[in-house]
Design brief:
It is elongated, with a radius of gyration of 13 Å. Helices cover about 30% and strands about 35% of the residues. The protein is α+β, with helices and mostly antiparallel strands. The longest helix has 11 residues, at about 45-55.
Length: about 70
């Protein structure tokens, strides 16, 4: 398996911060990109594996994926 760096932010937090408001459950730093590592066969498998933890339905956006 290969290791990938996943860059994730939360769009809901980003939008609320732009309006001067706060998210109910997430800290304002989620408006910025967070980096995580994931092991996967390839980039095509790294994305859905990451979305299991950082779901788009919860406002998370994968900005980019980089092979390490």
């Amino acid at each position: 398996m290969a290791r990938f760096e996943i860059a994730v932010y939360n769009e809901e937090v980003r939008n609320l911060e732009a309006e001067g408001e706060s998210h109910r459950h997430l800290s304002k730093d989620w408006a910025d990109i967070h980096y995580f590592e994931v092991d996967a066969r390839d980039e095509a498998h790294a994305r859905p594996k990451s979305l299991n933890k950082y779901s788009s339905s919860a406002g998370y956006v994968i900005d980019h994926i980089t092979a390490l």
